[in-house]
Amino acid sequence: MLTQEMRDSMIDVADLNQLKWDLNHLQPVDVGEYISKLPTNQRAIAFRLLNKAQAIDVFEYLPTEVQEELINSLHDVQVVQIVEAMSPDERAELFDELPAGVIKRLLQELSPEQRQATATILGYPEGTAGRVMTTEYVRLREGLTVGEALSKIRRQDEDKETIYYAYVTDDNRTLVRVVSLRQLLFTFPDVLIRDIASDRVIKVRTETPQEEVAQIMKRYDLIAIPVVDREDRLVGIITIDDVVDILEEEATEDIQKLAGVSGDEAALSSPLLTIRNRLPWLLGIMALYIGAASAIAPFQSVIAAVPVLAVIMPIFSNTGGTVGIQALTVTIRGLGVGEVTPKDTLKILRKELIAGLGTALALCLTMILLSLIWARPQERWVALVAGIVMASNTMVAVTLGTLLPMGLKRLKLDPALVSGPLVTTMLDTIGFLTFLSLISVALNVLHLPS
């Protein structure tokens, strides 16, 4: 682990020998964290202190922007050695962020085998199994014996992503069976692979969405899953470390969308990136709120006649929006982890409506009480209207929070596209229109006092 002194101090030229020893004896993930937190002008210095093997391991744990920065500051030979040693999927992820000219130069320097593997992965659409798979896996033929298979693994498969599973293919590379390393180790050497390998292979296709891959691996407790093309030919595997990254990426994306944040913003992102990511959303939300404000504009005389409305209306806005976001979050989370599907829409809606009914009653009574406290004696009739509208708005909120993400999922769109601010604005518009219309009717038709 990194010492507190290393975490708190910058590079001291006088202590480079000690730092070199420390960095080369720490875990790569800890070194990657240390280098990432250094000032920009010191990262390359620290990275150059690493020996070749440690540098290769550490590079994969660095954030993409730091990797790109180091590529621009290191010698071409050193860069090629590092990129060549990366797994194909990690290399493809890095290339996604690099300028086209740099990618072209690096591809030309890679070995033909690694160049082909990287080009293959980059050829698949982003967010699919083909884009996150690695082409480094253990492949066996059915006709091998267990002893021959183990010898092959020892001789040729040292650098594979994982050897826990070996995938059995025919002469056309069609995936037919899978066998675990445990089975190989505890079976006599002269037994044929086909006699112990399972033909019940759980697999995904190159075009399978990456979040679906994560759900399948979670469901079946797999540490790796094979990826096949449309002809069932084995083209790669996805390992558990990739799935962890996928789940983190999907969770981050959903949270950002719910909060109305776009892009790849992180807690320590630059102010410029923060402005660039947030401002479009904020301007969009402002445009939506103009719609909600427009619903209020025709009722200015009503609000002037009944001043307590100015006190009550913000409560509608905050409470209704919160109820909607609660239902929205639970539904999106259930869809995200595969707990529910669009087929469960009525079941989920029934549950939310029953819960919403109890919530609506409690909020209705609370609203009536608050309105009675704040209203002048001649305005206390407003309390009943406020309570009724609060209850109805609560039921609308749980309905929208459930149906909107379910509808997007049924249309094969991302449910998280329904952001919290969008739902809040819709509920504000509905609530304000309903509330102010009823108050207007009460004043003009029923001639209630103001």
TrEMBL record:
One of its GO terms (molecular function) is magnesium ion transmembrane transporter activity. Keywords: CBS domain, Cell membrane, Magnesium, Membrane, Metal-binding, Transmembrane, Transmembrane helix, Transport. It is found in: Cell membrane; Membrane. It comes from the Bacteria. The keyword Transcription does not apply. Pfam families: CBS, MgtE, MgtE_N. Its main location: membrane. Gene3D superfamilies: CBS-domain, MgtE N-terminal domain-like, SLC41 divalent cation transporters, integral membrane domain. InterPro entries: CBS_dom, CBS_dom_sf, Mg_transptr_MgtE_intracell_dom, MgtE_N_sf, MgtE_transporter, SLC41_membr_dom, SLC41_membr_dom_sf. It is a multi-pass membrane protein. One of its GO terms (cellular component) is plasma membrane. The chain crosses the membrane at residues 279-299, 305-332, 353-375, 381-404, 416-443. Belongs to the SLC41A transporter family. Homodimer. Acts as a magnesium transporter. This is Magnesium transporter MgtE.
